[in-house]
């Protein structure tokens, strides 16, 4: 029963985190760019979205790690293949968490204080890391499905 | 014009744009005078903190003492000698 609860928490947290990254990267940013003039940065929209996404992303991260650790304790990997997949998943999650923390502590404070020109450069770099986060999210999700 | 001396408590991310100064003497006694002085010395300060129509950006909080200037008179808020001007950013992003 506990395993099913943890699996469900893990799944929902994954949808929230990876879904938020997908929405921000592939839907919101291309649309937001078109709402302003070429040299302007859509500060209000992007920072507003960032303020909202902060809580869901960090709730997702906390739930993914805690439910994942719980699942490993309840169902330790048995075969070399499972161990390898778990290592791959942990690495992917570590990269995702690292990119997210970097964004929170370094990119977003700079972005909030940037000029329009600086903001475009900062956000383009941030988008590259977001695409990497999304890719690692997909890898971690698929590996998770194979493990269980 | 009277001169006002203030202490500055800005986050490091902003400090880099004003050479990490922690105090400033400027002519005048309003937030607008303070910002104008920073803008003249360091450039781009107004663009970093304010919207084109002159209000502080909604995710930036500028304080005189313990009061957010948006709850006072905005850029016309009076600054007294020895006041501390502080800046706080919204928590955002991931």
Q: Residue ranges of chain A: pLDDT <50 for 5 or more in a row?
A: none
Strand order of the largest sheet of chain B: 2-1-5-3-4
- What structural category characterises the helix and strand content of chain B? alpha+beta
Largest sheet of chain A: none
Largest sheet of chain B at a glance?
Answer: 5 strands, mixed
The CATH superfamily of chain B appears as Beta-grasp domain
> How many angstroms separate the termini of chain A?
15 Å
Mean pLDDT of chain A: 93
How is the secondary structure organized here?
The complex is a heterodimer of chains A (148) and B (94).
Chain A: H1 2-33, H2 43-74, H3 80-112, H4 116-147
Helix pairs in contact in A: 1-2, 1-4, 2-3, 3-4
Chain B: E1 3-9, H1 12-15, E2 23-27, H2 31-42, H3 45-49, E3 60-64, E4 67-68, E5 84-89
Parallel strand pairs in B: 1-5
Antiparallel strand pairs in B: 1-2, 3-4, 3-5
Task: Briefly characterize the structure.
The complex is a heterodimer of chains A (148) and B (94). With 148 residues, chain A is mostly helical.
Can you tell me about this structure?
- Chain A has 148 residues and is mostly helical.
- Chain A has one domain.
- Chain A has helices at 2-33, 43-74, 80-112, 116-147.
- The model of chain A has no long low-confidence stretch (mean pLDDT 93).
- Chain B is of the alpha+beta class and 94 residues long.
- Chain B contains 3 helices and 5 strands, in the order βαβααβββ.
- Chain B has helices spanning 12-15, 31-42, 45-49, and strands at residues 3-9, 23-27, 60-64, 67-68, 84-89.
- Chain B starts with a strand and ends in a 5-residue tail after the last strand.
- The interface between A and B is medium-sized, with 25 and 18 residues.
What labels describe this entry?
heterodimer, A: 148 residues, mainly alpha, 4 helices, 87% helix, 0% strand, B: 94 residues, alpha+beta, Ubiquitin-like (UB roll), 5-stranded mixed beta sheet, 3 helices, globular
């Amino acid at each position: 029963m506990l395993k099913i609860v943890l699996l469900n928490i893990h799944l929902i947290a994954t949808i929230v985190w990876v879904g938020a990254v997908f929405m921000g990267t592939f839907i919101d940013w291309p649309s937001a760019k078109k709402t302003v003039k070429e040299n302007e940065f859509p500060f209000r929209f992007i920072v507003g979205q960032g303020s909202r996404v902060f809580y869901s992303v960090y709730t997702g991260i906390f739930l993914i790690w805690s439910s994942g650790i719980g699942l490993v304790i309840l169902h330790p990997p048995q075969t070399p293949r499972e161990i390898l997949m778990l290592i791959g998943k942990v690495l992917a999650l570590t990269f995702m968490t690292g990119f997210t923390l970097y964004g929170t502590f370094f990119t977003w404070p700079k972005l909030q204080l940037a000029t329009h020109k600086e903001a475009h450069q900062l956000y383009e770099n941030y988008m590259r890391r977001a695409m990497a986060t999304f890719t690692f999210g997909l890898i971690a999700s698929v590996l998770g499905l194979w493990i269980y | 014009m009277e001169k006002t001396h203030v202490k500055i408590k800005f986050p490091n991310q902003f400090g880099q744009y004003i050479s990490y100064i922690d105090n400033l003497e400027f002519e005048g006694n309003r937030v607008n005078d303070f910002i104008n002085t920073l803008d003249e010395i360091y450039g781009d300060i107004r663009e970093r903190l304010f919207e084109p129509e002159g209000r502080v950006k909604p995710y930036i909080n500028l304080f005189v003492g313990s009061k957010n200037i948006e709850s006072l008179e905005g850029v016309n808020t009076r600054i007294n000698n020895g006041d501390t001007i502080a800046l706080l950013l919204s928590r955002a992003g991931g």
